[in-house]
Amino acid sequence: MAQADETAMTMQATVQTDALERLDHMPWTRFHTVLTVALGVGWALDSFETNIIGSTFGVLKAQWRLSAAQGSVAVSVWVVGMLIGAIGFGYLADRFGRKRLFLGTLLWYAVFATGTAFSWNYESFLFFRFMTALAVGGEYSAVTATMGEFFPKAHRGRTDALILSGFPVGAMASAGASWLLFSWFPPEIGWRIGFGLGAVLALFFLWVRRAIPESPRWLLQQGRVAEVEAIVESIAATATGRVASEQSARRFAPASFVRATPSFLRNLGELATGYRRRCGLASALNFSQAAVVYGALALMALVILPEMKVPAADLPLYYFWGNAAALLGGMMGAYSVEAFGRRNSLLASYSLTVLAVLPLYALTSLPGMVFSYCLMQFGVTWAYITAYVIAAEILPTRLRATGLGVSVAIGRVGAMLAPLMLTYAYQATGTPSSALLVLILLALPGPIAALLWWLWGEETRNVSLEQGSANLPDQRIPRTRPVRFPLFSA
């Protein structure tokens, strides 16, 4: 009797629609362009806030007479805040919807970035940086979960990569703005304007994001089919030309979807069991790239530039060129994920990232070391962009943001370990080679995971998100628990 009731409940919760098929086969529209810009600029703002501390800390250190240890605490507070925000807001995006979260995190960011600009001492600065980091971690989860859920499958990988390329754009803007502000204003004023500028831009793009509807895929999880149909129709209405007319007349076989209400512990349980390999892949890739990104910054700030007697005021210029190389890496990612496939792009990019560290052993001039640093930035940006594209495609809608949040959180562990371990190795031996060896070891999980996925993983280029997340050789659902999860059809 109980089993019959459960079957009846499941049948009542099942909905049918061809809306996602129409979304996947839709031509590019004006809506898709607006969405790309709105999400990409948000990603750039996150990067602006993340990277501005590297350009301004020298000024803060002098103004508040901070020690090197206090500088490390400021970085650690930021990383811990991102870790907590990624997991917490990631689950909330699965539970309460993408739109609420990508609006809420941007507003949260604007409020506490403003507070950072008005910090009156070191302790208040740490508080506001931590609160801002919560929002940035949430943006990582909400934006990466949202970006692939709207775009036609033929454009999804390239467009996702372009959105993620907003990160080096934000980093370049951070370095350029810091250099100009310190040239135009007294240092104790310039850094405040820099943090305030990010908050003002966030409020403007909050207004732009209000026009983005809720994710149709998330709405289907709630059984809200009428809203899904309306959103897909409104997106199709922004298309133009003969292809758009043909598309509007085309109909697809309806697919079945089962309603689901995510819970935090159940999401984590599924990620640790049925999706353990895929979540493990995303986590290993994120750990590797975060270790390289933060390790390379520590290497530049603590070893390379001081060894070469580069003035502190010129540091933003070197970071600017590194992030220009990162932007090229983003463009490479946007091209390669479609041209060569996800798996090939993943293996090539993570392999290049590790190999790019090796020239630093031989190069002794400043131009040579900066070139190697730029090569690392090119490789690691190409790598993490490909990794985020894949992670968003191989996790199902009901726990996509949670899974991405977990991988981001594990990545922040790499971000915390790399500067500490590199600094310790350099101070213990007095030679840069030991720090470089630590950086290579921390980066190795990335190419190893990429190789395993290249050998045994699924290629998700030009397939629906439902197909990409449904083929799970490692999925094991306990027999003692009734199946309440959405079982997607291709």
UniProtKB/TrEMBL annotation:
It is found in: Membrane. The chain crosses the membrane at residues 73-93, 100-120, 126-150, 162-183, 189-208, 284-305, 317-335, 347-364, 370-391, 403-422, 434-456. GO terms for molecular function: carboxylic acid transmembrane transporter activity. Residues 35-461 form the Major facilitator superfamily (MFS) profile domain. GO terms for cellular component: plasma membrane. It holds the Pfam family Sugar_tr. InterPro entries: MFS_dom (IPR020846), MFS_sugar_transport-like (IPR005828), MFS_trans_sf (IPR036259), Sugar_transporter_CS (IPR005829). Keywords: Membrane, Transmembrane, Transmembrane helix. It comes from the Bacteria. SUPFAM superfamilies: MFS general substrate transporter. It is a multi-pass membrane protein. PANTHER family: CARBOXYLIC ACID TRANSPORTER PROTEIN HOMOLOG (PTHR23508). This is MFS family permease. It comes from Sphingomonas kyeonggiensis.
